[in-house]
Every structure is written in C-alpha cells, then in structure tokens.
C-alpha cells in the first residue's frame, strides 16, 4: 500500500459560532464542511472508512476466537491464516469454514454420503475451463481460517466419525458407515483402542471416558482368535502403551502386558523370524496358509512397542525377541544398497523373492523403524543408523526419479533391475521420516529431499478431481507428457490413509512453513466433501477421479481415527510441546512412545 501523497492529505477544521454543543449545530456544520470538500477528498475519506470496515469484519472472528481461545491451554497463539489469492482475478465461489457451507445430499447415489460444496474444487474446475496447466499450487481461496477453526474442524470430524462408530459398531473392529453395520477382523474393538490416545490428545474427555469404561469392563484378550502379529502390535499394543503414557492409568499398561504376552508365541519359529499370525487364546502361531514366508515390513516394525513393553515391565523377553529379528536382518544377504526385499522365510530366516525393491507395501515401515528405534534408544544403536543411512543412499541411487512435465521427485520401484515409476500412497511416510532424521542431526540434504517428496505427495491429491490421492500412482517420465500422474483403474481407491498428513505434520513442525498447513486443510475439506457419511462416520471410496460419484466402499479403517485425524490435529496445533518430537517418537500407527533418557 502507498502512503498518501501530500496533496491527498485532508485536514478538517471545525469553526463557527453558536452553541457548538447543540446536535443541530453539529449536524449542519459537518454537512457544510463535507460539502466544502473536493470530490477527491470526499472519495478518500469514504475509501478510508470502507477499508476500516472491511478490516474490522475480516479480523472480527480471529479476535473473538482469541478471547475464547484463552480458555483452552493448548492453543497458545492464534494467527489468522489467509490463503493467498494467487489467482486474484477469480472471486471465490464460497467463503467461510466448512460448517457454514451448504451441505448437499448426493443425488442418485442412494447413499448417505455427504457432498459439501467445495470452493477448492470449484476453483480447480474454473482453472481447467480456462484451459490452464494442471494445477501446481495450493492456494486458490480467499478463505481466512484461524488455527482455532482448523483444530475445531478436526474435533468435529472426530466426533462425527465416533458418532457412527458408537451407534453402529460399538466395541467392534470397524464401522461400515453406509450399511450402518460393522466388520470384524480380530474381534477386539480395534477402532476403539486405536482411537484412545487421539481422544485424549484432542481433549475429547467424555468420549475417552466411555471408551475407557469399555476397555476396563468388556475388553478381553482371552479369545480363541487368530490375529495378525504386526497389525495387533502397532494398533493394539501401541495404542494401549501410548494411552498409558498420556494418562498414567495402569489399566492400559496391564492390558498392554496382557496382549504383548499373548503375541509372544509368534516368535517360536526355527529362525526366530516371527510368524504372521497368532491365536491369542490358544497360544499358537502360524504363517499364512499359502506360504511359510513373513512380510519384511511386518517383522521389522513391531520393535518400538515390544522394546517399550520390556522397559515398562522390566521383563526383558519382549525386547530380546524383537532385537534378535533386527540383528538377523542386519546381517542378511539379498539387500541392494541397503534396500530390502519384501519377504523373509520363517524356517530359513533368509529373504525370499529376491530382486524386487519398494518403499511401499511390505517394506515401508522397515525403513521408518530403523530410524525410530535409533531415536527411541537415545541414538546409541549404531547398526540401526548405519542401515538407515545406507538404505537412503540405495533409494537415491535406484528409486529416485523426476516426473514430466513438472519435475516432481518421486520414489519408484525396482524389479530385477527394471525400474517402474509406480509409487504407493504408503511411500508418503518418507518425507516425514526424512525430516525427523534431519531434526535429529542427520544430513541436511535429507530435509531437502523431504521437501521435494512432500510436494509430490501433495500433488498426488491436488491433481485428482476429488482432491484425494489414489492408493497407487504411476508417474510419467517421457518428455511432452501432459500430466505428471497417471492412475490405473484398479488403483483409484482411497482408504482414508494417513501418510501424507503425517508427513505434513513433521514438515510443518520443523520448517514452520504455513503452506503445509494449508495443504492439510485442503485435504481435510476434501475428506469432508467426499467421504463423510451423513448418518455418522467416514467411508473409504473407490474412485478419487470421479467427484460426481466417488463410490463409497462402506468401510472406515481404524487408522482414520488412530492416525489421520490425530496428525491433522497436530498439524494445525501451534503448541510445539504437544507431543514434542524431542520427547516422543510415534510408532507406525501414530501412537506416541517416549524417547528413552540417556540413562536407560
Ligand atoms: C497403518 O496401519 C500404518 O500406518 C501402517 O504402517 C501402514 N498402513 C496403515 C495406514 O495406511
């Protein structure tokens, strides 16, 4: 804004005789003075008054929220976030937080899925109509949203998800929100346990208390049921341990010890590489029916939880079992530049299906847990760090490429020397993990790579018609491509996965670059627009490319409450002490566990 030039300066001097206290005199005098002003002076005054009015209206919600927000300890500051109008020429179609926007019942789908009018998508459509390039920027809106509003939006989303779970699936594993029923996997109240610490962190105490009552009165692990070792470790054992740490309530530690002990038979194999499945009632374990292999990511991503259980109970057996797995994998043949194959045999203890390398499904959290165990243990276990650093060099050498036309950095796959530009959404944990490593003193170029990959993961959402990422994308690499990302028909689903939001949280914490929050806000709005079910809950969808009919899958995964919503909340929170990354390390299901002090 320019400062007013001398000639535009307006001086108002009131003179005259008579009773200057009389209203009549004042009115006449002001009017006379007003008439005496030049047109320019009058316009200038009117403009200034209008400007002050607009500023007042724009800042009013932030100011009132600020005073309201003082009641909440967690919200320490309240900047007003205004997404910049990068395309100034286009007026936003709608303004205001999602709660104020019209909600439309989707026509013709016969489902209860809610479709909210979405200014982001409207703006994107307008872009396409104008014949512009595929989208590469996030900020399309003139929407001003305070951090308080964003945190409240996450709490609203959680409450809505919980409402569906409570009404139609209470105490069961997963909500089926469209059919208003539930699905069972292990029969252990998976969603409820996965969501415990999220409720605590979001300060939803009423919901937490009713869930706690269920844990204390209904939850029993003495059941003749087969459970997957990895899934029950990261979701149930991890969830119980972190809830114990946050609340100090020994109910959760007792339950954690119970399930941890019941999972131990999985390690009774010839190689000490655990089986994938355990019957927690009978105390027996077995591999899947069709093979004696286990998945590498599964056997190497249970360590944070069992190590912590040993520390808390002073029973060394848990830690000994999982440390032995890591020591064996550390020495194994069959890696390529630190990259691991996807399968390992429980009899021989050797990798199988050699020559195939990915950072996606079946290998992903191996890399994540190398770094996180090193952090958990106070950065003393150098073998873990060496394996992590070597693997990253392997990623750079073998899997990292650029897309066309926008040169997005992505992580592809390798099969017997053949590169494939395929990237799972699961790989989007990597920007966050890289940033976490850099924060703990690893090379600064890890942070640079984290930022590049973060942009790519965001584009996996932004370039889709619903603004939601598919499960798998293929990047274009040949010159002259029109778009960076292609999606095969079978890969168009979205399971409400957390990885991109998780990474946005880490990137924001470490860089304080507000664009990461704005990207997250965009994604949350699109979850609300395309996956929210009016009668309660959120649903996975089949087709992120069809905003008219995304085709609900009728399933709300437990990680939507355990991870996705928790990371949204942490992303929008301004409190660096809310689960400080110098004190906690998150397991691969977003359950925070303490970093051990150097004495341990
Ligand atoms: C979660 O169970 C965990 O994050 C796991 O590491 C990967 N898959 C899901 C979420 O996508």
Automatic annotation (TrEMBL):
Ca(2+) binds at residue 588. Disulfide bonds join 428-457. The keyword Membrane applies. It is an enzyme of class 3 (hydrolase). The chain crosses the membrane at residues 44-63. The active site is at 231 (proton donor), 364, 471 (proton donor), 499. It catalyses: N(4)-(alpha-D-Man-(1->2)-alpha-D-Man-(1->2)-alpha-D-Man-(1->3)-[alpha-D-Man-(1->2)-alpha-D-Man-(1->3)-[alpha-D-Man-(1->2)-alpha-D-Man-(1->6)]-alpha-D-Man-(1->6)]-beta-D-Man-(1->4)-beta-D-GlcNAc-(1->4)-beta-D-GlcNAc)-L-asparaginyl-[protein] (N-glucan mannose isomer 9A1,2,3B1,2,3) + 4 H2O = N(4)-(alpha-D-Man-(1->3)-[alpha-D-Man-(1->3)-[alpha-D-Man-(1->6)]-alpha-D-Man-(1->6)]-beta-D-Man-(1->4)-beta-D-GlcNAc-(1->4)-beta-D-GlcNAc)-L-asparaginyl-[protein] (N-glucan mannose isomer 5A1,2) + 4 beta-D-mannose; N(4)-(alpha-D-Man-(1->2)-alpha-D-Man-(1->2)-alpha-D-Man-(1->3)-[alpha-D-Man-(1->3)-[alpha-D-Man-(1->2)-alpha-D-Man-(1->6)]-alpha-D-Man-(1->6)]-beta-D-Man-(1->4)-beta-D-GlcNAc-(1->4)-beta-D-GlcNAc)-L-asparaginyl-[protein] (N-glucan mannose isomer 8A1,2,3B1,3) + 3 H2O = N(4)-(alpha-D-Man-(1->3)-[alpha-D-Man-(1->3)-[alpha-D-Man-(1->6)]-alpha-D-Man-(1->6)]-beta-D-Man-(1->4)-beta-D-GlcNAc-(1->4)-beta-D-GlcNAc)-L-asparaginyl-[protein] (N-glucan mannose isomer 5A1,2) + 3 beta-D-mannose. One of its GO terms (molecular function) is calcium ion binding. Its main location: endoplasmic reticulum. GO terms for cellular component: endoplasmic reticulum membrane. It is a single-pass type II membrane protein. Its EC number is 3.2.1.-. Keywords: Calcium, Disulfide bond, Endoplasmic reticulum, Glycosidase, Hydrolase, Membrane, Metal-binding, Signal-anchor, Transmembrane, Transmembrane helix. GO terms for biological process: carbohydrate metabolic process; ERAD pathway. Pathway: Protein modification; protein glycosylation. Pfam families: Glyco_hydro_47. Residues 89-129 are annotated as: Disordered. InterPro entries: 6hp_glycosidase-like_sf (IPR012341), Glyco_hydro_47 (IPR001382), Glycosyl_Hydrolase_47 (IPR050749), Seven-hairpin_glycosidases (IPR036026). It is found in: Endoplasmic reticulum membrane. The keyword Transmembrane applies. Involved in glycoprotein quality control targeting of misfolded glycoproteins for degradation. It primarily trims a single alpha-1,2-linked mannose residue from Man(9)GlcNAc(2) to produce Man(8)GlcNAc(2), but at high enzyme concentrations, as found in the ER quality control compartment (ERQC), it further trims the carbohydrates to Man(5-6)GlcNAc(2). This is alpha-1,2-Mannosidase.
